[in-house]
């Protein structure tokens, strides 16, 4: 049922998007629970992690001649995330660390493109909040189901349904990296589609699709048939919930995904 939905989009994409895709994967890779909180977190210039990195790079020679100071700061933050991506950490810590890395990769891409979009600033804010939680050992307080920021939208409800169902089914235990990368790729793709059209989003939707397939395969391989059937049912249930929310008008206005508090 959903395999057909996943295959409905077959975009083509010029070399620029391919480079951005490679950036997301090769640079050593939360939507906010409330947009007002996300906006506050965008102001990261004086936060501890960015301040520490800015202090560090003042005494360092740039690794690349044309790397901006902002990119050096963000790469410094990526290095700070690496200890939390190791196998001795919990799957939740690994997932969050990879997710923060993916956000930083997106911010680096935006900076390299001299983008004036607020999406890059939001990405830095997201990454900063995760990094601080990891450092402060409060990562358990970060909800796994998080809202889509105002700079993006819910597109490809079939992929979002798979992502949410895997989260509910402890899929992060099986594939923390793939789950993290797919989530940010979905947000990145929708932002690109809103800002520049569908030709700018295809590569990222395909990346999200591929990572989610890997995550689902990893989950299926370690669970019995009854558990896997339950996963498929959750995917169907989430799809029914998300399909009416699909931003078919290509307008980014965010989307609440976290359960409402009773």
Describe the structure.
Helix 2 runs antiparallel to helix 6, helix 6 packs antiparallel against helix 7 and helix 8 crosses helix 11. The protein has one domain. It has 11 helices and no strands. The N terminus is likely disordered. Helix content is 60%, strand content 0%. By secondary structure, it is mainly α.
Q: Which tags fit this structure?
A:
mainly alpha; 11 helices; disordered N terminus; Lysozyme inhibitor LprI N-terminal domain-containing protein; signal
Summarize the structure.
With 262 residues, the protein is mostly helical.
Taking the alpha carbons of the first and last residues, their distance comes to 33 Å
Largest sheet: none
Quaternary status of these chains? single chain
Number of strands: 0
Tally the structural domains: 1
How large a portion of the residues is in β-strands, by DSSP E? under 5%
Task: Give me the Rg, rounded.
Answer: 18 Å
Contiguous helical run count: 11
What level of helicity do the residues show? 55-70%
What topology does this entry show?
Layout: H1 2-6, H2 15-26, H3 35-41, H4 48-57, H5 69-81, H6 91-112, H7 119-135, H8 157-168, H9 176-196, H10 202-221, H11 225-242
Helix pairs in contact: 2-6, 3-7, 4-5, 5-6, 5-7, 6-7, 6-9, 8-9, 8-10, 8-11, 9-10
Organism: Psychrobacter alimentarius
Keywords: Signal
Protein name: Lysozyme inhibitor LprI N-terminal domain-containing protein
């Amino acid at each position: 049922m959903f395999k057909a939905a996943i295959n409905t989009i077959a975009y083509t994409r010029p070399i620029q998007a391919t480079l951005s895709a490679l950036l997301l994967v090769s640079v050593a890779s939360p939507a906010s629970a409330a947009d007002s909180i996300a906006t506050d977190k965008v102001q990261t210039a004086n936060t501890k992690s960015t301040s520490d990195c800015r202090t560090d790079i003042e005494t360092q020679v740039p690794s690349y001649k044309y790397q901006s100071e902002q990119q050096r700061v963000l790469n410094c933050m990526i290095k700070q995330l690496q200890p939390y991506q190791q196998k001795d950490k919990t799957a939740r810590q690994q997932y969050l660390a990879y997710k923060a890395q993916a956000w930083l990769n997106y911010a680096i891409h935006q900076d390299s493109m001299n983008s004036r979009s607020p999406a890059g600033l939001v990405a830095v804010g997201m990454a900063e909040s995760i990094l601080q939680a990891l450092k402060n050992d409060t990562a358990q307080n970060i909800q796994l189901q998080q809202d889509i920021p105002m700079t993006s939208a819910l597109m490809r409800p079939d992929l979002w349904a798979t992502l949410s169902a895997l989260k509910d089914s402890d899929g992060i235990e099986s594939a923390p990296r793939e789950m993290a990368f797919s989530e940010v790729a979905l947000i990145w793709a929708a932002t690109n589609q809103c800002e520049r059209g569908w030709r700018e989003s295809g590569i990222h939707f395909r990346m999200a699709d591929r990572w989610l397939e890997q995550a689902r395969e990893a989950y299926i391989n370690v669970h019995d048939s009854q558990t896997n059937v339950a996963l498929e049912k959750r995917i169907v249930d989430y799809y029914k919930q998300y399909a009416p929310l699909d931003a078919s008008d290509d307008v980014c206005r965010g989307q609440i995904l976290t359960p409402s508090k009773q």
